[in-house]
Amino acid sequence: MPITQEMINELMKEYQKPEDLLGESGLLKQLTKALVERALEGELTHHLGYEKHGSRKNGNARNGKYSKTIIGKEGEIEIGVPRDRKGEFEPKIVKKGESRFNGFDDKVISMYARGMTTRDIQAHLEEIYGVEVSPELISRVTSNGRSKDMAKSAIRAYISNSIYGCVNSKDTTRWQSNK
Asked: Is the pLDDT of residue 63 over 90?
């Protein structure tokens, strides 16, 4: 479904300053929250096999919501995650036990691969995204096997691009090895 100009106009009708769009309770966070919660409701409906307020087909039913804070590009967002009575519902868009959303780990790994310390990454995330994370969380993100592979790949790509750019330039820079 394409987003129409009318939809954008309706969303932006009270826009006056950048904080209205990007701020702590700005439109972007509100929209992200609403879309994630709608997607979660859709996942639960699919899991249960019937619409909300419809007739139960398998003896399982909706059982309210629990609150969860996710961390994404827009910072921290509090969402309501629906649940079922049997506890069988496994959300896909924001999995159980996960709080990071939308490539957050990849950003941390990228900063780590570029040589930033865990404290530098912590300060950067707080400054840019308004997200307070512990150095321990950053260490966990950068220390698991998948993260190490991604970091190595990012480092190789970074070095390769740096060397390729230098070799192909008309610069007379010479590479020397340390013996």
From this structure: yes
Nearest alpha-carbon partner for 70 in 46, 96, 49: 96
Q: CA-CA distance, 81 to 68, in Å (whole number)?
A: 7
Contacts of 110 (CB under 8 A, 6+ apart): 154
Count CB-CB contacts under 10 A for residue 168.
8
Q: Render pLDDT for 104-161 as a digit per residue (tens, 0 to 9).
A: 667 777 777 778 888 888 888 777 666 677 777 777 766 655 545 555 555 555 455 5
> Both tokens of residue 4?
């129409």
Which amino acid, 39? A
CA distance 33 to 27: 10
Helix axis angle for 135-143 and 104-113, nearest 10°, is 90
Closest to 134 measured CA to CA, from 87, 160, 99, 168: 99
CA pair distance 39, 60, nearest whole angstrom: 20
* Residue type at 102 in one-letter notation: N
Helices (H) and strands (E) in the chain, counts: 7, 2
pLDDT of residue 164: 46
What gap in Å lies between CA 60 and CA 48, rounded to an integer? 7
Q: How far is CA 117 from the centre of its chain?
A: 21
